[in-house]
Amino acid sequence: MEELIAVLRYFPLDPVTNPPTPIKKADLDKIARETGADITLNTINNKDRTIDGDVIREETMNSAIEEVSQEVITVSCGDETAFRSAVRALFKLYRAPRTVFGTWGSSKHGREIVYRLCDEYDGWY
Amino acid sequence: MKILGIVGSCRKLGNTEILVKEALMAAQEEGAEVDIVRWTNYEILPCEGDAVCMFLGKDCKYKDRDGHDYLLNMMYEFDGVVLGAPCYILEVEAVVKQFIDRLFILSSRPSKMIGKPAAIIVPYATRGWTSYAFLQPTIVLHQLGMHIIDKQLIHIQAMSETAGDGLAREKARRIGKEVARAVKTGDHSYKGDPGVCPVCHERNIRIMSDNQTVECGICAIRGRLSIVGGKIKVVFPQEQLKWHRFAFESLYRHVTYEIKPSKDYFIRKWPALKQDRAKYKEFLDIDRKAGEVR
Fold first, then answer.
1. Do A68 and B249 touch (CB under 8 A)?
2. Inter-chain touch A63–B258, beta carbons under 8 Å
3. How confident is the model over B206-235, as pLDDT tens digits?
4. CA–CA separation, B66 and A2 (whole Å)
5. Contacts of B209 in chain A (CB under 8 A)
């Protein structure tokens, strides 16, 4: 079975603004348990970023996508049904990543499935 | 105290021009120095989306070839704005949207209108054909960071008819006085119809695809809809309000995390995209001259 990989990149204040749901490892673990997909969370804090309450400052013009401050949820699974269920559940909680590069690093087939699920429900429309 | 009247209408001495002038007369009575400009007298070329203003911090390629930069810098000389544009088919005249599309330049050259008061006047002819009349004027003023303090729809039919319509002129005068007083006092509280959205005061609420959530399409704040005593009630949680689409921090986040990193994406994708697009270059000639027979 092909290993499907979805890399979902959420940039600062994405999940906390709308809906007001910060990404929590416990929520990801629950979705992983319920669906059977493997889900990991990686937090990237750019060393140049400053935070003062809700005010975040970071220069990203010449940064590689992977270096920009963000939370990266990676879903991987050999079973397409489980993979879809996991991505759907994540979209319900956090909506889909806002940008095209928000899925950078996904496998080709994984990204296609993510985009089909976005058409179904991405939380933004 | 300087107030600028902007006329987004081609028609000379039409209702929009008359109403904006009436507002400026009233502002003048409040002690304002006033001036007026007709946006449609200037060519505003369509944004080509090449993003050199965003990614390279350069001037727009059209800076000296059309009127957008001139009109934007002209606004910067003023402390308040009265924007008038006629509603044609559901929305105001296209010049307002043309102006908005070129505001990508603000990502590298921040607006100098932030926190200044503005008001909108929209004359229209047929009731029921104004659903999005305030949409583009609201977007342009919010994108510039201005505080909208009032909006008025003015029902009028014949050309220049407002010149003899006391009620229409009274509404325009109110707008002019309100903007002048807002500049003088610093009180930018909203004076118009409160609408449904507490930020932009519009009534264009979208029902999201979960069929549970509603959103102001302009401000992107989300809430819940309910029926209370037979009346529709929309409640937006307080914490949503400060994160509306045009709040400074929201725009900063948008530019920082959604626009700027796409430069890296373009650079990485470009070699493959060049190959992928080749066949579309050869297929049909979209840029043939108008009227040219194939």
1. no
2. no
3. 999 989 999 999 999 999 999 999 999 999
4. 54
5. 121, 125
